[in-house]
Amino acid sequence: MARTRRDTVDNGTSTSSTGSTGSTGSTGSTIPLSMATPQASPSQHAMLNNLMASSAAALCSRLCTHPLDTLKTRIQVSNVPQPLLRTFLRLARDGGLYRGLPIALTLSAPGLSVYLTAYDLSKDRIARLFPSYLGTDTVANHLASALIAEVSSGLFWTPMEILKSKQQVETLSPALSSSSVSPSKGISIHARTASTTAAAASASASASASASAAKPISTRDLARKIYRQEGLLGFYRGYFITLGVFVPYSMIYFATYEQLKAMAWRQRLQRPGSATTPYQQQPGEVLPFMTIVGCAAVACGIAAAASNTVDVVKTRWQTSILTATEATSSSRRIATQLFRQGGLASFTKGMGARILWMIPSVTISMSLFEWFKAYGLA
């Protein structure tokens, strides 16, 4: 058996008398193959692949669905009913569909990367720590992993939501703001109770009422104003209420999504017409693309509808930054104002627009992530 004897010389190189491993230069020095071609560990490679897959999925999803996000936000901040199609066409005509896109692209990629990577890592780690009770296929594991993923990624999502939403609603007509809605002006109680989000955005709109055609504020200028007025914490306004929205959303979503995928696998693992010859799942195999899309769409629709109530309060509070009034100074006061305006129905307005935006956004990001992760980008 060939062996390599390495002797260290004064210049730090190693010399080899014989050997079939390593590469030998003219001076007789040998560089072991493990040093010459360092390889990343499987876990490091998987982590890199997950990060690249989630980043690509985030960018594709945001580019495709940002107009629907803008539509949802504008409908939520209005204090009078806003028909979906008419609002969309008006935004398209005014060039407002992609307002807030730069900051959304900048922070959505790291946000989704942390979110999905944290979920995958947490699911595996929890299963290893508690194999008897919290295996990777248990609902309890999915709920706990979703909680960890949402708390971690909220550090990116919250600043993005504040800056993006503020830009999306800053040119809202003052006629739609809460300050212009009063019985003395002939606005019916029904119209006032149809308000569906942000008293804050209404304040933002009235602040720009005198110059509706003014040039929209840039992301950089908006960030500077927030920092001067409220400091770094201003970018995390509503962080905990955001968790109150998206922790339940994520837990419902992932628990439903994983169960739907398990059902799809059970159907797929049995060959049609052959009860005794089940199909064998191959390592790294994924469900068909449209099956993943269907699972993600159903799970998202259920989770989005269930979490809409708190989202209305969250949106109002976050968009009130820089223009906060006594009525929008806390989430409790915002909730009280909403209830006085229209009872429980006020917390459900905008649900259709939110689901209309979230379903394509989530299905695009999750289906692309699953496929990119399976077939590799790194």
User: What CATH architecture label applies?
Assistant: Alpha/alpha barrel
Count of structural domains:
1
- The H/E string reads EEEEHHHHHHHHHHHH
CATH C-level class? Mainly Alpha
Average predicted confidence as pLDDT: 73
- Total helices: the number is 12
**Unreliable stretches:** 1-29, 31-38, 177-214
Largest sheet: 2 strands, antiparallel
Remind me, CATH topology? Mitochondrial carrier fold
Span of the ends, CA to CA: 37 Å
Radius of gyration: 27 Å
Helix content percent band = 55-70%
CATH superfamily: Mitochondrial carrier domain
Question: How would you sum up the global shape?
Answer: globular
Q: Beta-sheet strand percentage?
A: under 5%
- Biggest sheet, spatial arrangement of strands: 1-2
State the secondary-structure class.
mainly alpha
